[in-house]
Design goal:
76% of the residues lie in helices and 0% in strands. By secondary structure, it is an all-alpha fold. The longest helix has 25 residues.
């Protein structure tokens, strides 16, 4: 009798856990799956997503990598900056949305090209693309941050 009672309780507990897990999965509807910023401040977003990555990349782009680890560091940071540029497109500008979007797209493109140059271990191309990406970042900062936060290669 005690075994039957224990088996019943365990069975009910397993069923409740399974149902709860399934209902959590079903709870994510299309509207909840839509992209939404976690941090509303663009300054904070840039400071904590882009700035640390840029600082690492700046150090790694100072000279051609001598080993795979060096190339991996450049590839990683270039890819992070390129993909994070997609997140810029998620945010809305106070004005000049078309320019905002263009800066985001161009930053993504240069970051992606930098990533591919690093994959090919082509430092000359990577250096050129790195400078182009920074020029794009600076153009955006000039237009949308009143010229503050200019980046140097």
């Amino acid at each position: 009798m005690k075994r039957l009672m224990l088996a019943t309780i365990i069975g009910i507990a397993v069923a409740v856990v399974a149902w709860h897990s399934a209902s959590e999965t079903r709870a994510v509807t299309a509207d909840k799956a839509a992209m939404a910023p976690v941090e509303s401040s663009m300054h904070e977003f840039m400071e904590y997503v882009f700035q640390p990555t840029y600082k690492r990349l700046k150090v790694n782009m100072a000279s051609a990598p001598s080993d795979n680890q060096g190339w991996k560091a450049i590839k990683s940071d270039a890819l992070i900056l390129a993909e994070a540029s997609n997140l810029i497109l998620l945010r809305k500008a106070d004005k000049n949305q078309a320019d905002w979007n263009a800066h985001g797209v161009h930053s993504r493109e240069y970051g992606g090209q930098l990533y591919r140059a690093a994959k090919a271990k082509d430092f000359a191309a990577a250096k050129k693309l790195y400078a182009q990406m920074l020029n794009q970042c600076n153009a955006c900062h000039k237009q949308f941050a009143t010229g503050k936060y200019q980046l140097a290669p």
